Automatic annotation (TrEMBL), chain A:
It is found in: Cell membrane. GO terms for biological process: transmembrane transport. This is ABC transporter permease. Keywords: Cell membrane, Membrane, Transmembrane, Transmembrane helix, Transport. The chain crosses the membrane at residues 23-49, 85-106, 118-136, 167-190, 217-236, 242-264, 276-297. Residues 81-294 form the ABC transmembrane type-1 domain. It is a multi-pass membrane protein. PROSITE patterns: ABC_TM1. Gene3D superfamilies: MetI-like (1.10.3720.10). CDD domains: TM_PBP2 (cd06261). Its main location: membrane.
UniProtKB/TrEMBL annotation, chain B:
It comes from Streptomyces spinoverrucosus. It holds the Pfam family BPD_transp_1. The chain crosses the membrane at residues 31-53, 92-116, 128-149, 161-184, 205-230, 264-284. GO terms for cellular component: plasma membrane. This is Sugar ABC transporter permease.
Length: 306, 299
């Protein structure tokens, strides 16, 4: 009796498993097609193409490690790596520091919080648009707002966008300007820190700085880590701003030749698709290594209380 | 806590004075905070406000005047900019809108289906697939763009909107799958268990129960998709080369390269026009945007 009902239940659960597998296939079908057809498939294809000469018109010709050895002697590639690394390593920490600073300012019940939050968040929605890149080009131009402001304090500014020495820094400022989205994530994280911890600390006589140092900062490290990983990956792929500000050239003197911009020029300007594929895979490796190092290093500074 | 409660009555006078001092200090601090915040707001928004004001000024004044005062607002730049292209600017706005609508529909349908499977169904190698899905969120588009371009050009899709829309119907924006999985996990399982007992299949549970309950997550997805697709430049630049297929950002870029030295007024005017939809969506949808960021970012 009991064994029969058990058997029935077993068969029922087997049927259930089969049914769930079938349902899952149905619900995931679009995703599977996308994953294999236009994500993983092309990814592997581009790995293969990186070992070929390919101009899109003729079929790819196998060329061994040619593309990869060419990279060693490609001065423009080296320049674009330098530009991109500078951009990532300078703009991301600045952006996150500003995001954290303003989140802390806004956290402790400021009147008009919703207003400030919206205003600070807005630039991160429009910062990647062509319109803002166009604006940037004029704001940092010879007659632009920045020089008008500098003239007020008696400094005669230059054309920031047209000087190789300063063009990149205008784009760094643009990225820092979009600190709103990490700031909102910081705010959400700050809200999850239990108020009782601060109460206990202030009873024990801990001042503001010590509370920040010993409560806020450690409990916020997972969020800092999350933002860091995300913004680094994001910054490595910056394209639109550099493209519009430099008119598609990466100039002046290749000073804004971002990696993705160089890849675009090679692939879709000169139709050197084999080399562009190799560049794409190098980018994937770089981003992957950065992310892996980030995760490895997180063991030493990110605090998980569970 | 109890220590303090006992201590207050016995030392009431000095405590009250300390209280008042602390109160005063707090007000000064709050004031300083607001000064700092308002200064940040001004520095951040000034360039954008200046662009809006400049779009209403004659060209000769734009670079002479760094202020925001507007004595004689004129719409000339808008009418000039609107008709400066091969087609009226509305043509490019409509193109962008078509791409955006397609992308939104695709993301809503495909991502919510995938999210239901990950959040509610047990299937083979689920953890592995979920891991792959998370990794694809971080995958740079550059790694797939070359073969994808080759594929879509073989299909004859270059200079159509299909390369911009079809991938959305195949749930390639995995970020939204993740967002919706997080949301569905918050819906009590008892609700769909009850429907199961009543004999409802997974399709019915999904469409009749889960979808209506996940409207906030769908709204977040729609709004983010709108803004990201509207601003997207890279893929549109690659797939749309015929000027009559240009979307708003492409038209704007082409305009800037033609006109830059001469007609900044019109450039600014059309830039403002291109930002207005994003601004409106942000204004009416920011509740969903902020919540969406908080659920995915802040765990």
């Amino acid at each position: 009796m009991s064994s029969i009902s058990e058997l029935r239940r077993l068969r029922g659960s087997q049927r259930d498993t089969r049914q769930q597998n079938k349902a899952a296939l149905f619900f995931l079908l679009p995703w599977f097609v996308g994953l294999f057809g236009i994500t993983l498939g092309p990814m592997l294809a581009s790995l293969y193409l990186s070992f070929t000469k390919y101009n899109l018109l003729q079929p790819p010709q196998f060329s061994g490690l040619d593309n990869w050895t060419r990279m060693l002697h490609d001065d423009r590639l080296h320049k674009s790596l330098e530009v991109t690394f500078t951009y990532v390593l300078v703009s991301v920490p600045l952006q996150l520091a500003l995001a954290l600073g303003l989140a802390l300012l806004l956290d402790k019940g400021v009147r008009g919080l919703a207003f400030y939050r919206s205003v600070f968040y807005l630039p991160s929605l429009i910062g990647g648009s062509v319109a803002i890149a166009v604006l940037w080009r004029t704001v940092f131009g010879t007659d632009g707002l920045v020089n008008k402001a500098l003239a007020l304090v008696g400094i005669h500014g230059q054309g920031w966008v047209s000087e190789p020495g300063t063009a990149l820094s205008t784009l760094i400022v643009l990225n820092v300007w979009t600190f709103g989205s990490p700031m909102v994530i910081f705010l959400a994280g700050l809200r999850q820190i239990p108020a009782s911890l601060y109460e206990a600390a202030s009873v024990d006589g801990a001042g503001r700085w010590r509370q920040f140092r010993n409560i806020t900062l450690p409990l916020l490290t997972p969020i800092i880590f999350f933002n860091l990983v995300l913004q680094i990956i994001h910054a490595f792929q910056t394209f639109t701003q550099a493209f519009v500000v430099s008119g598609g050239t990466g100039g002046p003197a290749d000073s804004t030749l971002f990696y993705s911009l160089y890849l675009y020029q090679r692939g879709f300007g000169q139709f050197d698709m084999g080399y562009a594929s190799a560049l794409a895979w190098l980018l994937l490796l770089i981003v992957g290594v950065f992310t892996a190092v980030n995760f490895w290093a997180s063991k030493y500074w990110v605090f998980y209380d569970d | 806590m109890t220590d303090r409660a006992i201590a207050v009555p016995t030392r009431s006078q000095p405590v009250a004075r300390a209280h008042a001092a602390r109160h005063g200090r707090r007000r000064v601090r709050a004031l300083l905070k607001h000064v700092l915040l308002v200064a940040c707001v001004l520095v951040m928004l000034y360039p954008v406000l200046w662009m809006v004001v400049s779009s209403l000024r004659p060209n000769s004044e734009i670079f002479r005047d760094a202020g925001l005062a507007l004595t004689h607002p004129r719409l000339e730049n808008y009418s000039n900019g609107w008709t400066a292209f091969a087609q009226p600017f509305s043509h490019y706005l409509v193109n962008s809108l078509l791409v955006v609508i397609g992308a939104i529909l695709g993301n809503l349908l495909a991502c919510s289906m995938a999210a239901y499977a990950f959040a509610r169904l047990e299937f083979k190698a689920k953890r592995l697939w979920f891991g792959i899905m998370l990794v694809t969120i971080m995958l740079p588009i550059h790694v797939i763009i070359v073969p994808q371009y080759a594929l879509f050009s073989q299909l004859g899709w270059v200079n159509t909107f299909l390369p911009l829309i079809v991938p959305k119907f195949l749930a390639t924006d995995a970020f939204f799958i993740f967002l919706m999985v997080q949301f569905i996990r918050g819906i009590p399982r008892e609700i769909d268990e009850a429907a199961r007992i009543d004999g409802a299949g997974h399709a019915r549970i999904f469409f009749n129960i889960i979808v209506p309950l996940m409207v906030p997550a769908l709204a977040t997805t729609a709004i983010f998709t709108f803004i990201w697709t509207w601003n997207d430049f890279y893929t549109q630049l690659i797939y749309l080369t015929d000027p009559s297929m240009y979307t708003t950002p492409l038209a704007l870029r082409a305009f800037v390269d033609q006109q830059s030295a001469t007609d900044w007024g019109s450039v600014f005017a059309m830039s403002v026009v291109s930002l207005v939809p994003v601004f409106l969506v942000f204004l009416f949808g920011q509740r969903f945007l902020l919540r969406g960021i908080a659920t995915t970012g802040g765990k």
